[in-house]
Design a protein that fits this description.
The complex is a heterodimer of chains A (578) and B (224). Chain A has 578 residues and is mostly helical. Chain A is 62% helix and 1% strand. The longest helix of chain A has 37 residues. The radius of gyration of chain A is 24 Å and the shape is globular. Chain B is mostly helical. Chain B has a two-stranded antiparallel sheet. In chain B, helix 3 runs antiparallel to helix 7, helix 3 packs parallel to helix 8 and helix 6 packs antiparallel against helix 7. The chains are: A mainly alpha (578), B mainly alpha (224).
């Protein structure tokens, strides 16, 4: 094993860029691309955060903002959802974490095709710009169809942005998919074909496994969105009727005839459900590593953790219609999709139990990354359990389109992955910059964000049970739910505003620590995986200096009895302890 | 620890360990080739989504669907012959797969001039396929009055799906022609002399895939 040849990585000389532009702008270095992805994703995420605060003010105080008309509200809903799911979470977890961790944790010098990798970022940036073009005055504003973009309502008159807003949205999605494909092909090929000596798949850190499976899901699920985007653009601009049935709209018979609105829902959710796991699986991986490192104990049931990721990935392709229970489907189909949905609870529960068993009697260090990892597990359990409710047809139908659904998906795929992202950033920032993030600000930020999200989303379960509908611009004087709902809405809004502003603490921490943070050293957390074994911190272009590292063990040898330190890096040969 | 786990071997564990050994999962497979396979897997899902959408809409369609033998017939010697044009097009595309395979073979023997001419022939066959497709489109649009949004013979979705899917495939063929020509010229110029010419095989993978997709499009549009 130790004599295996690595044909390309050690013989080919690496071209080091000489100019500032080559190093930091049009860079082919995976670490720089990761930072570019991260900064862009956070920037566009702040836009989405701002939109959500506007919506919360509108919900709690409908009279307060006169200028915030219905159209703006629906546009804010749509853009908030799409930006958060695609342009922040997917781009951050795969674009930023994927780029940063995959070559470093596999022991590669870079991605296999750095140029394609660079293009991936620039095309992603173009997709973000196209998306925001919807806000250019004079085009009628972005689409207000809701992030699911269901036709026929999406492209019929009366929906905000039904002519150009939806066009920018669909074009942006198609461009994003091109960007994702270029990046994703790189991640997968690097993981499969460019690992270092001794780095077998079953020794890879779980972060890499999570990114690997999630990227596969992306490459197989995004095509359905791509196809539906093309078909809807044709419906809109050419006048085809893929998704458009015969419709009388505002007294006019439209030219469309014979299309299938349900077809769009199937295509969309064939993408949309795996998308949940594209976001969740990298978060699972990151959290597994954070828990193991900061609890100073090997991850419990490593092999089962890997297989659980793979099975969740496979299952995620056969559950999509549970998003469509109210669309009117044959009861047998409902039964099938409810069953497959509930089966996903098995591998997911395996993961949760393994995290808990890793913590059992461990030497838990309550560092900021660990706080985030623990809060991820809690939040994920919360969101996952409400998923069991919604996975059952008979419970889903009455709860559909209420705040219960909003609470569920925000907990499980909004807040949870964000917590994992925060944890991951606090964990890897020292390697990326050579400086520690400020601990005090980090803890303040953590408690505000963590407790804040619970104050925001816990009451929403209750609101959903009493029947408050989601996506309503104004809840008028509804007699079918009590006045206390309004009080809850106000509490939620105030908390959301506070938590939203508190994110500035975190941005400030990132910037401040970059210049004034405590120097981190090579391995501040005492972690085993390869990225902490680089000769330089931050790692230079090419990562490993002259010689690639050799891996002798898995990434989880923490607190091994008889060794002098409580961690044994992957590069230490078997039988030695440091 | 990991090695201790690996000594506990059942048959399944052994299989997993074989596949997951270090450095490369697929032995002796260059990076570019692995990447092309994965890309084609993703592209398969695009075409599958297109074709499944077509089947779903067609099966639930209440308007009449044109009869392929009539709408795709070509007048030859005064009599309409069903599927004549498409038979020629399909034959040409399959032939181009043959010349591509020969190019790959010549590539591994490092016979650069032969590689160039075989790839050039493949590209020309591909270009003539696209040309005939343009002819067929013209005939449908001007002759039969089928547009992407209308169809005098019944369901408008016939035209919509036909132009969208064959158009998307035609874009793949056109991109393939450009790709073939670029690689062929670079081969001739000696850009790949210190490699084992796997780039020819990688280009070939893409080309065979485009041909294979055509077989499905042919079956679903012209034979159904």
């Amino acid at each position: 094993m130790a004599t295996a040849e690595i044909p390309y990585q050690e013989t080919a000389p690496l071209h080091h860029p000489k100019t500032w532009i080559g190093k930091y702008v049009f860079s082919q270095d995976h670490k720089v691309i990761a930072v570019q992805y991260g900064i862009t994703a956070i920037a566009v995420g702040l836009v989405a955060l701002f939109l959500s605060d506007l919506m919360r003010i509108q919900i709690a105080y409908p009279e307060f903002m006169d200028w915030f008309v219905e159209d703006y509200y629906y546009q804010a809903i749509t853009m908030h959802g799409m930006i958060m799911v695609i342009y922040l979470l997917t781009a951050f977890l795969l674009g930023a974490f994927g780029n940063f961790t995959v070559p470093l944790m596999c022991g590669a010098r870079d991605m296999v095709f750095p140029f394609v990798n660079m293009l991936s970022y620039w095309v992603y940036l173009i997709s973000v710009i196209i998306l925001l073009l919807g806000y250019i005055p004079g085009l009628g504003g972005p689409t207000g169809a809701g992030w699911t973009l269901y036709p026929p309502q999406t492209i019929t008159e009366g929906t905000p942005g039904a002519d150009w807003g939806i066009m920018t949205m669909l074009a942006s999605l198609a461009v994003f998919i091109v960007a994702f494909t270029m990046g994703g092909l790189n991640y997968i090929t690097t993981i499969l074909q460019a690992r270092t000596r001794g780095m077998s798949l079953m020794r890879m850190p779980l972060t890499v496994w999570g990114i690997f499976v999630a990227t596969f899901l992306g490459l197989l699920a995004f095509p359905a969105l791509f196809v539906s985007a093309i078909m809807m653009i044709l419906d809109l601009k050419i006048g085809t009727s893929f998704f458009m049935p015969a419709i009388v709209s505002m007294g006019q018979t439209l030219a469309h005839d014979g299309g299938q609105p349900l077809l769009f829902q199937h295509l969309f959710w064939f993408f949309g459900h795996p998308e949940v796991y594209i976001v969740a699986l990298p978060a699972f991986g990151v959290v597994s590593d954070l828990i193991s490192v900061h609890a100073r104990k090997n991850i419990f049931g490593y092999r089962l953790m890997v297989w659980a990721l793979v099975f969740i990935g496979i299952l995620s392709f056969i559950v999509w219609a549970h998003h469509m229970f109210v669309a009117g489907m044959h009861p047998y189909f409902g039964f099938f999709f409810a069953t497959t949905t509930l089966i996903i609870a098995v591998p997911t529960a395996i993961k949760v139990y393994n995290w808990v068993l890793t913590l059992w009697k461990a030497n838990i260090k309550l560092t900021v990354p660990m706080l985030y990892a623990l809060s991820f597990v809690l939040t994920f359990i919360m969101g996952g359990i409400t998923g069991l409710f919604l996975g059952n047809v008979i419970i889903d139908v009455p709860l559909s389109d209420t705040y219960f659904v909003v609470a569920h998906f925000h907990m499980v795929m909004g807040v949870s992955p964000i917590l994992a992202i925060f944890g991951g950033i606090y964990h890897w920032y020292p390697k990326l910059t050579g400086r520690m993030l400020n601990d005090t600000i980090g803890k303040w930020h953590f408690w505000i964000t963590f407790l804040g999200t619970y104050i925001i989303y816990f009451p929403m379960h209750y609101l959903g049970f009493i029947g408050v509908p989601r996506r309503y611009y104004e809840n008028f004087d509804s007699s079918f739910y009590p006045a206390s709902a309004q009080l809850l809405n106000e509490v939620i809004t105030w908390t959301a505003l506070f938590v939203g502003v508190a994110q500035l603490l975190y941005i400030g921490n990132l910037v401040h620590s970059y210049f004034y943070g405590k120097p981190a050293g090579d391995n501040p957390w005492g972690a085993n995986s390869l990225e902490w074994c680089t000769p330089d911190t931050p790692p230079s272009h090419g990562n490993w200096g002259d010689k690639l590292p050799t891996v002798h063990r898995w990434a989880y040898d923490y607190s091994v009895p008889g060794s002098d330190k409580d961690f044994i890096p992957q590069t230490v040969p078997q039988g030695q302890s440091s | 620890m990991a090695e201790a786990a690996q000594t506990n071997q059942g048959p399944l564990t052994t299989i997993v360990d074989d596949w997951s050994s270090d450095v490369t999962t697929f032995k002796a497979v260059p990076w570019g080739k692995a990447m092309m396979w994965i890309f084609l897997l993703s592209d398969t899902f695009i075409f599958t989504s297109f074709l499944v959408s077509y089947m779903a809409v067609r099966m639930t369609q209440t308007d009449a669907w044109p009869y392929p033998s009539e709408v795709f017939s070509l007048e030859a010697f005064g009599t309409p012959v069903p599927l004549l044009l498409i038979a020629i097009m399909t034959f040409i595309l399959i032939t181009s797969s043959g010349t591509m395979a020969m190019a790959v073979n010549m590539g591994y023997r490092k016979r650069k001039v032969a590689v160039f001419w075989l790839m050039f022939a493949t590209a020309m066959l591909g270009a003539s396929f696209v040309g005939m497709q343009a002819f067929e489109w013209t005939k449908l649009i001007t002759g039969e009055g089928v547009k992407a949004w209308q169809n005098p013979m019944g369901a408008p979705q016939f035209g919509s799906f036909f132009f969208m899917i064959t158009g998307f495939h035609g874009l793949h063929v056109s991109a393939g022609v450009a790709y073939l020509l670029i690689v062929a010229i670079r081969v001739l110029r000696g850009k790949y002399d210190n490699t084992s010419f796997e780039i020819v095989e990688i280009t070939g993978l893409y080309w065979h895939f485009v041909d294979l997709v055509w077989v499905f499009i042919f079956a679903f549009f012209y034979l159904w």
